[in-house]
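Something for you to look into today, if you have time. Could you write out one complete protein record for me, on any chain you like? The space below this message is yours for that.
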Amino acid sequence: MRRSLLYAILAILGCLVFIGGLKAAVAWQRPSVPILIYHNVLDADEARRDSLSHNAPVLSPSAFESNLAYLEREGYETVTLRQVSDFVEGRGSLPPKPVAITFDDGWEGVYRFAYPLLVKHKMKATVFVIARQVQDPRRRQPFTTERLTMLDWDQVREMDSSGRIDIESHTYDLHKRSSPDGAPSDYPAAIARLTVGGAIETDAAYRRRLNEDFKAAERVFRAQLRRTPRFVAWPYGAHNHAALETARSRGYRATLTTDYGVDCAGDDLMRLRRVSLSEHGTPDVDGAIREARYAPEIYSLKQCVKALLRIPNDP
């Protein structure tokens, strides 16, 4: 009996692997676009960059330029998020090897080190800024590689008007972690339920808080850039149905997650995937993109195997 059960399990596993392989092969052939995600670039030694990476991965300018040179050498062409959205909606075409480049948070190192390299290589990118944290040029912290500083609005406007960089929203003030009792927590504010007046906020209150944050970011964008944002990247990649509905109701074209993978025609614009290169190292950019093309299929296969063998999910 046990032997028969074992054979049955092995047969099912074999079928799952075969089906997963077919799905991965199909996924590889589907036209897709990878959206690369970076955070910061600083001209500092490795020890200093490592010490500053507790907030977000920090690349050296040489490492970032090696990424750009690799993409250039391999025939990739950078596209905007507007082009990506048109493609996903089935309303536009892309170059043979498209790639979108994004930066989260709005660190000043992006302006000082990444932006000149993007101009040098004639590439485009999108920078997602936390609207509340962008500095006033008249009262800004002086730049130094000894600590992290945020962009100021003069720098943001210069990049936004360059034709190379699009500035979009990383929310107004949701890039923080919260807990129901207000104490420090690892729970992202975009999906946390806070305690208000001794009670956990209701669904309606939570949705109002999200909506007010989006409205605040839009007010700042109108004042500083004379337009509203069209895309939002979720802080820490954290989102839920209510957050996605809030973004959709406010007219955002798409939202970007940190879910690993590439994006294809017909995918959900409210859940665009990305490929992190800050944590993959260089120069194997193409390898990371190749892996991302079938990441969702491989993940689904892994979950099926775990369920069959009753293996707990990763924490």
Summary: Residues 32-283 form a domain with the TIM Barrel fold (CATH 3.20.20.370). The longest strand covers residues 98-105.
